[in-house]
Amino acid sequence: MFRFSIINIAFCLLLTAPCNSQNVNGLNLELLGAKIKVTDMKEALDFYVGVMGYKVKAGNIDSDLVILEDPVMTLALSKTNKVRKVNYPNETQTILVFETKNLDSAVMALRKRGVEFYCDEPQKVGVGLSTKFYDPFGNIHSLLQETVGEKRNFKEPRIYNVGYYIDDIEKGRQFYSVNLELPIRTLRYYPPALPLNDNKGEFCTILHYRQTASKVEINYDKETYVALMLKTSNITNVLELLKKKNISIVKQLRQSALGEYIVLVDAFGNYLEIYQE
Predict the structure, then answer these.
(1) Which fold has domain 6-14+26-276?
(2) 107 sits in which H/E element
(3) CA torsion sign, 131 to 143 to 2 to 12?
(4) Above 50 in pLDDT, residue 3?
(5) Worst-scoring range by mean pLDDT, 16-30, 160-174, 186-200?
(6) pTM summary value
């Protein structure tokens, strides 16, 4: 069984030169960030601001959408109705990896603030140490400390990457690389993992094989989850191209504080959103 992880591979990606594959007739999607669905904005801000240390960039306690300040990508909190706790590791999911300079200290501080962790001890991964924790809304995230390479000075909190656990890596490749036209960054780790760029040549996401990650059924409008957000300069054109590819489109041309967007669902039940730039 393959046992590589999203985190194991991420550091090695720095050694792989990104490629830019803009196509004037294609989707040309770029990374925007991640959206975390929550059921109570006050509780969400208490956790992500009060506990994790983020600052609010836009929105407030009365908003349906709040943007947090993250140096890596756009991080949004979006209000929904019902908590759905991820059945980790037995179902597919979109997972956020947050980075810290000292995992032991970070875990101790979060535990004192009442954060629930999936396991008691950190796991050794290819680039360092990692552990997983829940937010108050059933979403599970990773927390990583790099222990290889040169030490970097960065401001916490920050996202390290966003990726997927799926049970069919070839089907994932077909959806994300072929249908969504996200360029393959390298095949060095394929299988069990497939890192993808966006069409600006920047690292976008990782597809990670996990045999136990069965397909999920999530109510888009009513339940909590984490979603990858992409962006485009021409959402009308993207919508038409996706229809021609028979991609499952859940919502068409919705409006939000981030702009006009559409919602897709992949072959595993994960939602992702594409926004007008």
Answers:
(1) 2,3-Dihydroxybiphenyl 1,2-Dioxygenase; domain 1 (3.10.180)
(2) helix 103-112
(3) negative
(4) no
(5) 16-30
(6) 0.90
